[in-house]
């Protein structure tokens, strides 16, 4: 029995009582250029990873500690239980680390790699929101601001270098809401 059902039973409420607040059914509409901006920022971050010898393929990895050790790709399709077993089998204190691609650079000594990791994680979270049609959270707004800032900086750097963005790139445009009473 779910906690909500137990609480209803304890308070003497019917289990089929209507919700006090009906959730809104309107789904947030994402700007058309957002997926391309995510890809643009993601590619720039992966370039940073590549420059510093980190893997760029999507997936989960483990690092066996020790200097000069490479990140090893974990097999796809591992269940959480299998991943936990791998974690428990790692020698304690040997410096083994486990991470998905986005988090590989999180603890790097190089600030550029740490920032790339943060932005890759933001890309992943926003992409999951777009695909999953889940409610927007404050973290999603923070991620969107980070990605927008990074995208703008990338465009400035490309312009300074005399490069053009990809032909299908559409910068986000914020349009003021018209006041219906005016």
Outline the structure in words:
- The chain is mostly helical and 182 residues long.
- About 5% of the residues have low confidence.
- 45% of the residues lie in helices and 6% in strands.
- Strands 2-1-3 form a three-stranded antiparallel sheet, with no helix packed on it.
- α2 runs antiparallel to α4 and α2 packs across α5.
Fold blueprint:
Elements: H1 3-11, H2 34-51, E1 60-63, E2 71-73, H3 80-89, E3 97-100, H4 111-132, H5 138-160
Antiparallel strand pairs: 1-2, 1-3
Helix pairs in contact: 2-4, 2-5, 4-5
Short recap of the structure:
The protein is mainly alpha-helical and 182 residues long. The protein has helices at 3-11, 34-51, 80-89, 111-132, 138-160, and strands at 60-63, 71-73, 97-100.
């Amino acid at each position: 029995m779910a906690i909500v059902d137990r609480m209803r039973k304890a308070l003497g409420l019917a289990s089929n009582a209507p919700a006090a607040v009906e959730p809104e059914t309107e789904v947030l509409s994402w700007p058309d250029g957002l997926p391309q901006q995510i890809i643009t920022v993601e590619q720039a971050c992966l370039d940073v990873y590549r420059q510093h010898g980190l893997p760029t393929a999507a997936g989960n990895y483990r690092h066996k500690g020790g200097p000069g050790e490479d990140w090893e790709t974990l097999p796809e399709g591992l269940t959480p239980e299998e991943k936990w077993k791998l974690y428990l089998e790692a020698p304690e204190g040997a410096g083994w680390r486990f991470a998905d691609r986005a988090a590989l650079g999180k603890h790097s000594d190089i600030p550029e790699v740490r920032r790339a990791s943060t932005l890759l994680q933001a890309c992943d979270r926003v992409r999951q929101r777009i695909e999953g049609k889940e409610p927007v959270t404050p973290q999603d707004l923070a991620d969107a601001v980070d990605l927008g800032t990074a995208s703008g900086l990338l465009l400035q750097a490309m312009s300074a270098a005399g490069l053009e963005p990809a032909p299908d790139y559409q910068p986000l445009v914020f349009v003021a809401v018209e006041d219906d009473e005016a």
